[in-house]
Amino acid sequence: xxxxxxxxxxxxxxxxxxxxxxxxxxxxxxxxxxxxxxxxxxxxxxxxxxxxxxxxxxxxxxxxxxxxxxxxxxxxxxxxxxxxxxxxxxxxxxxxxxxxxxxxxxxxxxxxxxxxxxxxxxxxxxxxxxxxxxxxxxxxxxxxxxxxxxxxxxxxxxxxxxxxxxxxxxxxxxxxxxxxxxxxxxxxxxxxxxxxxxxxxxxxxxxxxxxxxxxxxxxxxxxxxxxxxxxxxxxxxxxxxxxxxxxxxxxxxxxxxxxxxxxxxxxxxxxxxxxxxxxxxxxxxxxxxxxxxxxxxxxxxx
Length: 302
Ligand code: ADP
Hints:
Layout: E1 9-11, H1 14-22, E2 28-33, E3 41-47, E4 52-58, H2 63-78, E5 87-92, E6 97-102, H3 113-126, E7 144-146, E8 149-151, H4 159-174, H5 181-192, E9 205-207, E10 216-218, E11 224-226, E12 232-234, H6 236-245, H7 251-261, H8 267-286, H9 291-301
Parallel strand pairs: 1-5
Antiparallel strand pairs: 2-3, 3-4, 4-6, 5-6, 7-8, 9-12, 10-11
Helix pairs in contact: 3-7, 4-8, 6-8, 8-9
Protein backbone atom coordinates (compact mmCIF):
# COMPACT_ATOMS: atom_id res chain seq x y z
CA UNK A 1 0.00 0.00 0.00
CA UNK A 2 1.09 3.60 -0.59
CA UNK A 3 1.66 6.22 2.05
CA UNK A 4 -0.91 5.82 4.74
CA UNK A 5 -1.52 8.19 7.59
CA UNK A 6 -2.04 6.51 10.96
CA UNK A 7 -4.41 9.28 12.11
CA UNK A 8 -8.16 9.04 11.61
CA UNK A 9 -9.22 11.99 9.48
CA UNK A 10 -12.54 13.74 9.50
CA UNK A 11 -13.25 14.46 5.82
CA UNK A 12 -15.87 16.40 3.91
CA UNK A 13 -15.90 14.04 0.92
CA UNK A 14 -14.89 10.50 0.04
CA UNK A 15 -12.54 11.95 -2.58
CA UNK A 16 -10.76 13.97 0.13
CA UNK A 17 -10.55 10.82 2.27
CA UNK A 18 -8.96 8.82 -0.56
CA UNK A 19 -6.47 11.61 -1.30
CA UNK A 20 -5.50 11.74 2.34
CA UNK A 21 -4.94 7.98 2.42
CA UNK A 22 -2.84 7.73 -0.74
CA UNK A 23 -1.46 11.25 -1.06
CA UNK A 24 -2.89 11.56 -4.59
CA UNK A 25 -6.17 11.50 -6.46
CA UNK A 26 -7.44 7.94 -6.69
CA UNK A 27 -10.83 7.04 -8.13
CA UNK A 28 -13.29 4.28 -7.28
CA UNK A 29 -13.44 1.83 -10.19
CA UNK A 30 -15.83 -0.67 -8.66
CA UNK A 31 -18.11 -0.64 -5.63
CA UNK A 32 -19.19 -4.12 -4.48
CA UNK A 33 -21.88 -4.46 -1.83
CA UNK A 34 -20.86 -6.45 1.27
CA UNK A 35 -23.66 -8.04 3.28
CA UNK A 36 -23.82 -9.08 6.91
CA UNK A 37 -24.21 -5.88 8.91
CA UNK A 38 -27.44 -4.58 10.36
CA UNK A 39 -27.10 -0.82 10.48
CA UNK A 40 -25.24 0.50 7.46
CA UNK A 41 -24.60 -0.10 3.78
CA UNK A 42 -21.19 -1.72 3.30
CA UNK A 43 -18.93 -1.92 0.24
CA UNK A 44 -15.61 -3.15 -1.02
CA UNK A 45 -14.12 -0.28 -3.02
CA UNK A 46 -11.78 -1.30 -5.83
CA UNK A 47 -9.59 1.68 -6.65
CA UNK A 48 -7.78 2.96 -9.75
CA UNK A 49 -4.38 2.34 -8.09
CA UNK A 50 -5.14 -1.37 -7.72
CA UNK A 51 -5.81 -1.12 -3.98
CA UNK A 52 -9.08 -1.93 -2.24
CA UNK A 53 -10.69 -0.42 0.88
CA UNK A 54 -13.83 -1.06 2.94
CA UNK A 55 -16.52 1.61 3.13
CA UNK A 56 -19.67 1.83 5.22
CA UNK A 57 -22.25 4.52 4.55
CA UNK A 58 -25.43 5.84 6.10
CA UNK A 59 -27.58 8.97 5.93
CA UNK A 60 -26.15 12.38 6.84
CA UNK A 61 -28.29 12.40 10.00
CA UNK A 62 -26.54 9.22 11.17
CA UNK A 63 -23.01 10.61 10.64
CA UNK A 64 -22.25 10.48 14.37
CA UNK A 65 -22.45 6.66 14.24
CA UNK A 66 -19.16 6.69 12.35
CA UNK A 67 -17.47 9.15 14.71
CA UNK A 68 -18.37 6.75 17.51
CA UNK A 69 -17.25 3.68 15.56
CA UNK A 70 -13.89 5.25 14.72
CA UNK A 71 -13.32 6.17 18.37
CA UNK A 72 -14.44 2.74 19.58
CA UNK A 73 -12.16 0.88 17.18
CA UNK A 74 -9.36 3.25 18.26
CA UNK A 75 -9.96 2.33 21.91
CA UNK A 76 -9.80 -1.40 21.15
CA UNK A 77 -6.68 -0.88 19.03
CA UNK A 78 -4.95 1.02 21.82
CA UNK A 79 -5.05 -2.11 24.01
CA UNK A 80 -2.79 -3.88 21.49
CA UNK A 81 -4.71 -7.11 21.98
CA UNK A 82 -7.13 -8.46 19.33
CA UNK A 83 -6.64 -7.02 15.84
CA UNK A 84 -9.13 -4.45 14.60
CA UNK A 85 -9.26 -2.83 11.12
CA UNK A 86 -7.29 0.35 10.63
CA UNK A 87 -9.71 3.26 10.29
CA UNK A 88 -8.55 5.88 7.79
CA UNK A 89 -11.31 8.45 7.76
CA UNK A 90 -14.93 9.20 8.43
CA UNK A 91 -17.11 12.12 7.44
CA UNK A 92 -19.85 13.36 5.17
CA UNK A 93 -20.15 13.52 1.39
CA UNK A 94 -22.97 14.74 -0.81
CA UNK A 95 -26.07 13.23 0.83
CA UNK A 96 -24.39 10.49 2.86
CA UNK A 97 -22.00 9.87 5.74
CA UNK A 98 -19.22 7.31 5.61
CA UNK A 99 -16.37 5.53 7.34
CA UNK A 100 -13.39 4.31 5.34
CA UNK A 101 -11.19 1.54 6.65
CA UNK A 102 -8.75 -1.22 5.85
CA UNK A 103 -10.37 -4.03 3.85
CA UNK A 104 -10.03 -7.41 5.49
CA UNK A 105 -10.16 -10.42 3.17
CA UNK A 106 -11.71 -13.24 5.18
CA UNK A 107 -9.97 -16.60 5.25
CA UNK A 108 -10.55 -19.97 6.87
CA UNK A 109 -9.96 -19.68 10.63
CA UNK A 110 -6.69 -21.26 11.87
CA UNK A 111 -6.93 -24.25 14.18
CA UNK A 112 -6.27 -22.09 17.25
CA UNK A 113 -8.72 -19.35 16.18
CA UNK A 114 -11.12 -19.83 19.11
CA UNK A 115 -8.35 -20.08 21.72
CA UNK A 116 -6.78 -16.89 20.32
CA UNK A 117 -10.14 -15.10 20.40
CA UNK A 118 -10.69 -16.24 24.02
CA UNK A 119 -7.24 -15.34 25.33
CA UNK A 120 -7.19 -12.13 23.27
CA UNK A 121 -10.46 -11.08 24.85
CA UNK A 122 -9.04 -11.76 28.31
CA UNK A 123 -6.05 -9.52 27.49
CA UNK A 124 -8.46 -6.84 26.30
CA UNK A 125 -10.59 -7.19 29.42
CA UNK A 126 -7.49 -6.91 31.60
CA UNK A 127 -6.12 -3.81 29.84
CA UNK A 128 -5.86 -0.56 31.77
CA UNK A 129 -9.09 1.45 31.41
CA UNK A 130 -8.08 4.75 33.00
CA UNK A 131 -7.73 6.64 29.71
CA UNK A 132 -11.24 5.74 28.52
CA UNK A 133 -13.22 7.08 31.42
CA UNK A 134 -11.47 9.88 33.22
CA UNK A 135 -14.14 10.96 35.69
CA UNK A 136 -15.39 7.68 37.13
CA UNK A 137 -14.71 4.00 36.81
CA UNK A 138 -17.43 2.78 34.42
CA UNK A 139 -18.85 4.26 31.24
CA UNK A 140 -16.93 6.27 28.69
CA UNK A 141 -15.99 9.88 28.17
CA UNK A 142 -18.52 10.16 25.32
CA UNK A 143 -21.85 8.58 24.48
CA UNK A 144 -21.95 6.21 21.52
CA UNK A 145 -24.36 3.76 19.86
CA UNK A 146 -25.52 0.18 20.17
CA UNK A 147 -26.49 -0.65 16.59
CA UNK A 148 -28.24 2.57 15.63
CA UNK A 149 -29.63 3.02 19.15
CA UNK A 150 -28.17 5.69 21.40
CA UNK A 151 -25.91 4.34 24.18
CA UNK A 152 -25.51 6.55 27.21
CA UNK A 153 -22.09 6.29 28.89
CA UNK A 154 -22.21 8.82 31.75
CA UNK A 155 -19.26 7.87 33.98
CA UNK A 156 -20.14 6.28 37.31
CA UNK A 157 -18.07 4.84 40.13
CA UNK A 158 -20.58 2.01 40.61
CA UNK A 159 -21.04 -0.67 37.94
CA UNK A 160 -24.47 -1.60 39.26
CA UNK A 161 -25.68 1.99 39.16
CA UNK A 162 -24.16 2.45 35.71
CA UNK A 163 -25.89 -0.68 34.42
CA UNK A 164 -29.19 0.51 35.86
CA UNK A 165 -29.06 4.17 34.77
CA UNK A 166 -27.16 3.97 31.47
CA UNK A 167 -28.13 0.55 30.19
CA UNK A 168 -31.47 -0.86 31.39
CA UNK A 169 -33.44 2.27 32.31
CA UNK A 170 -32.99 4.18 29.01
CA UNK A 171 -34.02 1.08 27.03
CA UNK A 172 -37.07 0.44 29.25
CA UNK A 173 -38.09 4.09 28.88
CA UNK A 174 -37.93 3.81 25.09
CA UNK A 175 -39.93 0.58 25.19
CA UNK A 176 -42.54 1.81 27.70
CA UNK A 177 -45.43 1.59 25.19
CA UNK A 178 -45.10 -2.21 25.26
CA UNK A 179 -45.69 -2.46 29.04
CA UNK A 180 -48.73 -1.93 31.28
CA UNK A 181 -48.67 -0.50 34.81
CA UNK A 182 -48.19 -3.76 36.71
CA UNK A 183 -45.38 -4.80 34.37
CA UNK A 184 -43.68 -1.43 34.80
CA UNK A 185 -43.75 -2.08 38.56
CA UNK A 186 -41.82 -5.32 37.92
CA UNK A 187 -39.29 -3.42 35.84
CA UNK A 188 -38.86 -0.80 38.54
CA UNK A 189 -38.41 -3.53 41.13
CA UNK A 190 -35.58 -5.01 39.08
CA UNK A 191 -33.95 -1.59 38.69
CA UNK A 192 -34.20 -0.98 42.44
CA UNK A 193 -32.85 -4.44 43.30
CA UNK A 194 -30.02 -4.93 40.82
CA UNK A 195 -27.57 -5.40 43.68
CA UNK A 196 -29.32 -8.69 44.53
CA UNK A 197 -28.15 -10.07 41.21
CA UNK A 198 -25.02 -8.16 40.13
CA UNK A 199 -21.75 -7.41 41.91
CA UNK A 200 -19.18 -4.64 41.74
CA UNK A 201 -16.27 -6.09 39.74
CA UNK A 202 -12.78 -6.22 41.21
CA UNK A 203 -11.49 -4.44 38.11
CA UNK A 204 -13.25 -2.58 35.30
CA UNK A 205 -12.77 -3.84 31.74
CA UNK A 206 -12.86 -2.26 28.32
CA UNK A 207 -15.74 -4.04 26.59
CA UNK A 208 -16.40 -4.56 22.90
CA UNK A 209 -20.00 -3.91 23.88
CA UNK A 210 -21.75 -5.58 20.91
CA UNK A 211 -20.02 -8.95 20.81
CA UNK A 212 -22.27 -11.12 18.67
CA UNK A 213 -21.00 -13.52 16.02
CA UNK A 214 -21.37 -10.90 13.24
CA UNK A 215 -18.75 -8.73 14.93
CA UNK A 216 -15.69 -10.93 14.75
CA UNK A 217 -13.94 -12.09 11.62
CA UNK A 218 -11.12 -14.35 10.58
CA UNK A 219 -8.47 -12.22 8.86
CA UNK A 220 -6.22 -13.01 5.87
CA UNK A 221 -4.06 -15.24 8.07
CA UNK A 222 -6.95 -17.02 9.79
CA UNK A 223 -6.54 -15.03 13.02
CA UNK A 224 -9.40 -13.35 14.92
CA UNK A 225 -10.36 -9.72 14.43
CA UNK A 226 -13.03 -7.61 16.09
CA UNK A 227 -15.20 -5.16 14.16
CA UNK A 228 -18.03 -2.72 14.79
CA UNK A 229 -17.81 -2.20 18.57
CA UNK A 230 -20.00 -0.27 20.99
CA UNK A 231 -17.20 0.16 23.54
CA UNK A 232 -17.48 1.21 27.14
CA UNK A 233 -15.85 0.33 30.43
CA UNK A 234 -17.88 -2.19 32.41
CA UNK A 235 -17.96 -5.68 33.87
CA UNK A 236 -16.30 -8.26 31.61
CA UNK A 237 -19.23 -10.64 32.12
CA UNK A 238 -21.46 -8.34 30.05
CA UNK A 239 -19.34 -9.07 26.92
CA UNK A 240 -19.35 -12.82 27.55
CA UNK A 241 -23.10 -12.81 28.16
CA UNK A 242 -23.68 -11.22 24.78
CA UNK A 243 -21.64 -13.90 22.99
CA UNK A 244 -24.25 -16.35 24.28
CA UNK A 245 -27.34 -14.34 23.28
CA UNK A 246 -27.42 -15.35 19.61
CA UNK A 247 -24.73 -18.07 19.69
CA UNK A 248 -22.01 -18.73 17.13
CA UNK A 249 -19.04 -18.94 19.52
CA UNK A 250 -17.32 -22.31 19.86
CA UNK A 251 -16.92 -24.12 23.19
CA UNK A 252 -13.12 -23.69 22.77
CA UNK A 253 -13.58 -19.93 22.99
CA UNK A 254 -15.23 -20.19 26.43
CA UNK A 255 -12.71 -22.78 27.68
CA UNK A 256 -9.81 -20.50 26.72
CA UNK A 257 -11.51 -17.38 28.07
CA UNK A 258 -12.45 -18.77 31.47
CA UNK A 259 -9.14 -20.62 31.89
CA UNK A 260 -7.24 -17.34 31.51
CA UNK A 261 -9.78 -15.05 33.22
CA UNK A 262 -11.17 -17.29 35.92
CA UNK A 263 -14.93 -17.73 36.21
CA UNK A 264 -16.87 -15.97 38.94
CA UNK A 265 -19.51 -18.24 40.49
CA UNK A 266 -23.07 -17.41 39.55
CA UNK A 267 -22.29 -16.04 36.08
CA UNK A 268 -25.15 -18.09 34.56
CA UNK A 269 -27.58 -16.37 36.94
CA UNK A 270 -26.44 -12.91 35.81
CA UNK A 271 -26.14 -13.64 32.08
CA UNK A 272 -29.78 -13.06 31.09
CA UNK A 273 -29.94 -9.83 33.07
CA UNK A 274 -26.97 -8.48 31.12
CA UNK A 275 -28.58 -9.61 27.88
CA UNK A 276 -31.85 -7.92 28.81
CA UNK A 277 -30.13 -4.70 27.72
CA UNK A 278 -29.51 -6.07 24.22
CA UNK A 279 -32.91 -7.72 23.96
CA UNK A 280 -34.69 -4.49 24.90
CA UNK A 281 -32.49 -2.57 22.47
CA UNK A 282 -33.52 -5.06 19.76
CA UNK A 283 -37.15 -4.57 20.77
CA UNK A 284 -36.68 -0.82 20.33
CA UNK A 285 -34.79 -1.09 17.04
CA UNK A 286 -36.44 -4.04 15.32
CA UNK A 287 -39.90 -4.34 16.90
CA UNK A 288 -42.18 -6.72 18.74
CA UNK A 289 -40.61 -10.02 17.69
CA UNK A 290 -38.26 -9.46 20.66
CA UNK A 291 -41.07 -8.69 23.12
CA UNK A 292 -41.64 -12.22 24.40
CA UNK A 293 -37.92 -12.69 25.19
CA UNK A 294 -37.87 -9.35 27.02
CA UNK A 295 -41.00 -10.26 29.00
CA UNK A 296 -39.65 -13.72 29.88
CA UNK A 297 -36.43 -12.22 31.22
CA UNK A 298 -38.24 -9.58 33.28
CA UNK A 299 -40.53 -12.28 34.73
CA UNK A 300 -37.47 -14.36 35.61
CA UNK A 301 -35.82 -11.62 37.68
CA UNK A 302 -38.84 -9.88 39.23
P1 ADP B 1 -22.94 -2.69 10.35
O1 ADP B 1 -22.31 -1.47 10.93
O2 ADP B 1 -23.99 -2.40 9.32
O3 ADP B 1 -23.44 -3.67 11.39
P2 ADP B 1 -20.55 -4.29 9.98
O4 ADP B 1 -19.48 -3.44 10.54
O5 ADP B 1 -21.01 -5.43 10.81
O6 ADP B 1 -21.79 -3.41 9.50
O7 ADP B 1 -20.04 -4.79 8.57
C1 ADP B 1 -20.88 -5.48 7.66
C2 ADP B 1 -20.19 -6.72 7.13
O8 ADP B 1 -19.05 -6.29 6.40
C3 ADP B 1 -19.64 -7.61 8.25
O9 ADP B 1 -20.52 -8.64 8.54
C4 ADP B 1 -18.37 -8.14 7.67
O10 ADP B 1 -18.63 -9.34 6.96
C5 ADP B 1 -17.93 -7.13 6.67
N1 ADP B 1 -16.83 -6.27 7.17
C6 ADP B 1 -16.85 -5.44 8.24
N2 ADP B 1 -15.69 -4.80 8.35
C7 ADP B 1 -14.93 -5.20 7.31
C8 ADP B 1 -13.61 -4.86 6.86
N3 ADP B 1 -12.85 -3.97 7.49
N4 ADP B 1 -13.15 -5.49 5.74
C9 ADP B 1 -13.93 -6.37 5.09
N5 ADP B 1 -15.16 -6.73 5.45
C10 ADP B 1 -15.66 -6.15 6.55
